[in-house]
Amino acid sequence: MGKKALTDNETGQHFQAQVVSCHGRHHFVRDSLGHIYEAHRRGKKGDVVVGDIVQCLSSFDNTAAIEAIEERTSLLFRQDEWRTKTLASNIDLLAVVYASRPRFNPWFVWKALLAAHKAGVKPIIIRNKTDLIEDAKEASDFLLRMADLGYETYSISSEKADSDTLGVLNTLFHQHQSLLVGQSGMGKSTILNLLVKDANAKTREYSEALNLGKQTTTATTLYDLDSGNGFIIDSPGFQEFGLAHLSEDDIINAMPDIKAYVGQCRFSNCRHLKEPNCAVKAAVQSGAIAADRYEFYVAMLDWLDRQAANRY
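RESULT FIELD:
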């Protein structure tokens, strides 16, 4: 795809577009007619996110300058002590994918759920590769636990690609602006290819335009759904979901099993760590709160405390 093939719009025109792919500081935007531009942010700002609605100015070489970003309805990102990685904007659904192989990390799923709650985005949890026998019970039990906590959960085998699987996926994502996340190897790409038949072709097309080759595996890209209104954003697989942007209240409010006992403690400012007469700790001891969920909660607060100490 050469630059001349990107658009036939006149140059020097202001237009609105949506960001459909980001490769570092290189972006692709799509206007209302479906024309695709290679675009660069005006100045040296690095604030453009896939899913953004942007105001652009076309240029003489069939590229465009991104001049402004419209107000977002949502923004999902992960943040650790070193950097912030934006994932997607203007989404209303986060699909967290896991499988029994490669071995999944429950904390990854739980952190993604915290991030979704903070962003005001509805999460769903998809167990993929149900055809695998190894560690199937662990994966199945985990999904049941998440359902018991009130989350929407689904089981599929994207490799089978049968009518039942396609029906579930098309129903889940229809008319939604969605983001797929998961650890590497969980089958996100297979799910994407079921929903968007030419996803690989589009990715190669952007890659060739920027001469990026295999670097597109590190890019986040938006695709229109084949089966109707809506889009799906695919993010590269990653192993850690940093949550440095969350507060202690954010964590409690996004953990329904912990939150259910908050307010029943002896002290109104109880952090549910070492305080006496703590209702949360009592619930852990009775089994009402799972021990590993409480361990996760303590680790999140400990991490936030260490981050706060490092700032002073």
